[in-house]
Amino acid sequence: MPPDQAPATIEVKVDKVVQLFDTLDPFPFRERDLNRDAEEFIVGWARELPARRAIRIVVHLPAGEAETEHARELGGALNRYFRYREEAVTNDLKELFRIGRFSLATGLSVLAVCIAVGGTLSTTYRGSEIVRFFNEGLIILGWVANWRPIEIFLYEWWPLVRRRNLYRRLAAATVALAPR
């Protein structure tokens, strides 16, 4: 594998494998959530890595700890956890787009009503400055009603896609144990 295609490495040092996971989580080890600090560390480091490279997580731990059942299950547990996080962010993205579609329909309806009312006022009261004032206000109101869907469809979804892609890369990461 060429040097620029070698997996980017995240190194984690622990005394016990269970330190990486939330001890209050009642599920079996391989299905537990990561400890918040461990997740922040791994995700923070992964953000700094080149986006096109595979990720390799190296866990440094005592030699005796590397022989335990938890250590053997570590790779699968990390992959499952990050796959779960990817699915959660994917669901958040779907929900954001659902809200965006509803907001867009609402905003366009408000804009259409504002334009129709403004047009009716303008034709009914030709030349009135106060009607011109209200007509301009209605048009502004109509466009402001579209602020949220525009914000969603132009800006808000990008960070979720980046986070989802990062979790996807972490879910596919190889996990290696490095006994010390």
- Report the sheet-strand fraction: 5-15%
Name the overall outline. Answer: rod-shaped
Q: Total domains, how many?
A: 2
Please state the CA-atom Rg, rounded to the nearest Å: 26 Å
How far apart lie the N and C ends?
27 Å
Largest sheet: 3 strands, parallel
Integer average pLDDT: 90
H/E element order: EHEHHHHE
How many individual helices?
5
Total strands = 3
Percent of residues in helices: 55-70%
Spatial arrangement of strands, main beta sheet:
1-2-3
* Secondary-structure content class: mainly alpha
The residue ranges in which pLDDT falls below 50 over 5 or more consecutive positions are none
Topology:
Elements: E1 8-13, H1 36-48, E2 55-61, H2 63-66, H3 69-124, H4 129-144, H5 147-171, E3 174-179
Parallel strand pairs: 1-2, 2-3
Helix pairs in contact: 3-4, 3-5
Brief synopsis:
The protein is mainly α. The chain has helices at 36-48, 63-66, 69-124, 129-144, 147-171, and strands spanning 8-13, 55-61, 174-179. The chain is rod-shaped and about 90 Å long.
